[in-house]
Amino acid sequence: MKSLRTDLYRASVLAAGALGVLATATVPSSAQQQQQLPKGWFKACAKQEDVDICNVQNIVSASTGQVVTGISLLEIKGKVNKKVFQVTVPTGRLVPPGIGLQVDGGKAQKLDYVLCFPDRCIAEAPLSDQLVASFKKGSELTLTSVNSQNQGNPVKVSLSGFTGAFDGPPMQQSDIEDRQKKLQEFVAKNNEDFAKKLKEEQEKAKAGN
Questions:
Q1: What's the Cα-to-Cα distance from 110 to each of 21, 95, 107, 123, rounded to whole Å?
Q2: Is there a domain that residue 206 lies in?
Q3: Does residue 209 form part of some domain?
């Protein structure tokens, strides 16, 4: 059971699609115009050991291009059957408050953190039929984590397209690979622009001295 739980964490992190790389990346405005992160809800399914895992997910980025939240609705079938809702955020968060989840103007639900990596933390709650139904009926999901300055950081996610992704077929492997390729190109382009900008600033500083 312990190894399976570890696999679930690994699956949710991998499914977030380069979240760990992008979570702390700051994107210059010029890069935003040339590269755009794939957006919206999508489903990916895979077999892992003796279970089948399907993950309906969404990756949210800030206007700067920084990825701030990864959402995963995991369904595991096979030797073990389990449904889990997970939210991944960058580190630098206060752990006790957890992450607040609210659909439209409904009552907020607390998600407790269950695991932290050096570059991200994962909060988790059971994936109930009631939660899925609220997502299908709702128009907007608000996820609020608390940063190290004790300030709430609400992230709003459109629920448009959720029902189609959840009830529809998973993405084809070729589409998943294309999505991953776009994410990798986005990271590479941003790193290139950042390094160029840093070099220019260093050269200006030297010239000023």
A1: 27, 12, 10, 9
A2: no
A3: no
Domain presence at residue 169? yes
Mean pLDDT of 35-62: 78
* Residue from 70, 61, 17, 22 nearest 194 by CA: 22
CATH number for position 27: 2.60.40.1880
One DSSP character per residue, 140-177 reads EEEEEEEBTTS-EEEEEEE-TTHHHHHHSPPPPHHHHH
Q: What is the pLDDT of residues 145-183, one digit of tens each?
A: 999 899 999 999 999 999 999 999 887 666 656 666 665
pLDDT greater at residue 172 or residue 203: 203
Give per-residue pLDDT as tens, 72-115: 999 888 887 889 999 989 888 999 999 999 999 888 999 999 98
Residue 28: CB atoms within 10 A of its CB come to 16
Whether 27 is in a domain gets the answer yes
User: Do the Cβ atoms of 56 and 72 come closer than 8 Å?
Assistant: yes
Rounded CA separation 177/203 (Å): 39
Residue of 202 and 72 predicted with greater confidence: 72
SS3 state at 139: coil
| Domain containing residue 174 | 2-201
d(CA 26, CA 14): 21
Helices (H) and strands (E) in the chain, counts: 6, 9
Number of domains in the chain: 1
